[in-house]
Design brief:
Length: 208
């Protein structure tokens, strides 16, 4: 007696498929047909890479404006402290980096790391160095001019604390300005960088 398919059709002997409904009669045929009919997996496109958050650098406009603003205030404070109490100058420089870090962290999604805070303080100090470099350049121009040199000597003569400078020649003053530049660069960048690290160590104030 010839076998029947599940659809009721009488199959010829050794038939591998039903001639009526096409159903495979052997397991290997059914498995192969199932693989062929299985839908291909839909490959989702790779997630687009999110733009990385801008690090602390001169390309970061927020860091740029914060460091420039803090440097401007610090420069005024340094001039005032330099006149009345010079030993406080290192404290003022450290406070500049500390303030820049605290201002940057106020609305930041992620607080600055110690390295990022040090870089922020260094940027603040670099603005200060540029301001002092301009002052040094202007002073050198005035000293190199004979009339300007005489005016400076007359001004120093009015202040007893400037007597060591009054005894120097034009060449000596210019050399002192040139030698002081590297020292000022280290002082004005390292101390704000240290202050930035201290600012990063303090817990960020949570907004209520």
């Amino acid at each position: 007696m010839n076998p029947r398919c599940t659809c009721g059709a009488i199959l010829p002997e050794d038939a591998r498929f039903c001639h009526k409904c096409g159903k495979p009669q052997y397991e290997e045929d059914a498995a192969r047909l199932a693989e062929q009919e299985a839908p291909a997996p839909i490959l989702s496109p790779p997630p687009s890479a999110k733009p990385a958050a801008s690090g602390v650098s001169f390309r970061n406009s927020r860091a740029l404006w914060i460091t420039a603003g803090v440097a401007a205030v610090t420069l005024i404070a340094m001039l005032a402290v330099g006149i009345f109490f010079q030993p406080l100058l290192p404290v003022v420089l450290c406070a500049a980096g500390f303030a820049a870090t605290r201002l940057y962290n106020q609305n930041a999604k992620q607080p600055l790391t110690a390295a990022g805070a040090a870089r922020l303080g260094w940027m603040t100090g670099l603005w200060l160095f540029l301001a002092f470099a301009v002052m040094f350049a202007m002073t050198a121009i005035v000293v190199a001019d004979p009339q300007g040199w005489e005016q400076i000597r007359g001004m120093w003569a009015r202040f007893p604390q400037a007597s060591p400078l009054a005894s120097m020649s034009q060449h000596q003053i210019l050399m002192q300005l040139l030698i002081a530049l590297p020292f000022f660069f280290l002082l004005l960048t390292l101390l704000p960088g240290l202050g930035g690290i201290l600012g990063a160590k303090f817990p960020r104030r949570r907004s209520s």
